Predict the 3D structure of the following.
Amino acid sequence: MEEGDLQREILCIMYFGKFGGRFVPETLLPALEELERAFYKAKKSRKFISLWKYYLREYAGRPTPLYFAENASRVLGLKLYIKREDLLHTGAHKINNTIGQCLLAKMILKKRRIIAETGAGQHGVATATACALLGLNCVVYMGQKDVRRQEINVLRMRLLGAEVIPVSSGSQTLKDAINEALRDWITNVDTTHYVIGSVVGPHPFPQMVSFFQSIIGEEAKMQILKAEGRYPDFVVACVGGGSNAMGIFKAFCKNRNVKLIGVEAAGDGKTHSASLTYGMPGVFHGTKTYLIQDEDGQVLPPHSIAPGLDYPAVGPEHSFFNDEGIASYYAVDDNSAIEGFEFLARTEGIIPALEPAHAMSWIIKNSKELKNKIVVLNLSGRGDKDMYIYREYVGNFKSQV
Amino acid sequence: MKICSYFTCGFPDLESSLKIMSELLEFSDYLEIGIPFTDPIADGPTIQFSSFKALENGFKVDQTFKVAENLSKSGKKILIMTYYNIIFRNKEKFLQNAKDSGVWGIVVPDLLPGEDLDFEELMSKLNLKTVFFVAPNTKKTRIKFIDKHTTGFIYYITVKGITGERERLPDELKQKIKSVKAVAKKEVFAGFGISKKEHIKELENIADGVIIGSAIIRKVIESNNINSAISNIRQFMRELTQ
């Protein structure tokens, strides 16, 4: 085999079609290769998998219910099932991944220093929690603006024993927190594992995070088959980086009769976070994927009322799913997300996080086309964290009226 | 010992950056023009600051080529340094513009050799030189691979970390560079953290060249105006290269 051919073959493993890859400084390559080996080893290790599943079951509260939302179904004229990731420990699906990666760092990589980025604080809290559980040192990078907006989550992380480092460079938000975490990793690569919070970043992160989240879809598939005796017509999830969506899509993507719907944040009409809907392919945070950027390739600041969707790019596998038509992606704006938020609270007594409220809103908007269909909504997190934003939104709205 | 200096295009503004780079050319064999990017993950606070300032002041990528055209008249080797998204956005046009403005080579800190073979083919078609990196933790077998993909020089990263000045260079640096040189056919330049005369002396007869960036930019940050920036740079470079 020619050297060029071999190189092309290696690239195939790291890419989803033309998306993905490893766009990182040379210094990180040994760590990514080490991580790739460790991940493949972990996946095959019965000991690792059973310990990970043990913690998910006994500590985090898996399996989560697939709840038939009777009231919402009646109102919308369809059959709505809700995958209750909001009931997990720390209040969101993030813990599936952080326990997985922290366990991998401890058992296989033998690294005891964990770093993570966080936007609103959910992934930071989930990482700090896993580190407290497993006795690891935890450093969380968080944009200065987010530190101010999310005081309580900063306090939670500190209470859990993590060090929170505010990032004051660039736009002082999630993307800059990732930049700074990457810089830390480049500097402390021998001793440190970087727990990325979504299906983004260089290979093997998108594959690995997708693996740890795919437990959502595996459960949901069994549960819907038990409840309905067949596959659903639609699976709907919100997409920021896209870990909860990939987590539930993976189990259904081979069945062409199941329509997979990813819902992005269309923001406030001026700025948005809908990289698949409005972005262009680019290279960002180590991967080739759809990106919100200007004509020069400079990254534009994203916006969404849901802090967890406030990211200018998206996981490379979603870019692949988008281009191949494996899943369809739509964007829903801030106001509509609030409607989804209030709808679920009032019809079902479930306050969703603002992120999956986007997915709920898409279902409401399309309820005519979805009539009598079986729809699974991935409710990736609970909304307690968003009460400040909701209060501000309601306040602004009232002052306008 | 060859000197390669780095400066951020558009910092503090376009015109000043051209003046500063023209000055730097007097003391350099190679000049790297840095194109600012919103998310420079391999850069420390100094180069980050200069990049964000340039972008705030309305820097556009196309301006780089005018600057390059101007500087390449000197006959010295001009390189462009930027993150991959800036190139990827309009790959063919970007590389053609670089070639047309007399650029010799392109440095991309977040592009590994072999990751984008299409880029490397285009580079070779245009006779633009690739500069790939070797880090302190790069395996020996990989150095050969990097050397094969490199058509310009190898950029040896002196420390595991990001760009920025350091008080001392690592003790094992000389040995490390020797071991890279033993394997690689291309020239090896050392960069990251080089900011003092002692650093350059230390690497004399070991590395083929050194790359200086953050230390130069700091001189500009510390100056009150463009004239004092230029005289500070002149003094600094003179001391460094004497």
Summary: The CA atoms of residues 128 and 160 of chain A lie 6 Å apart.
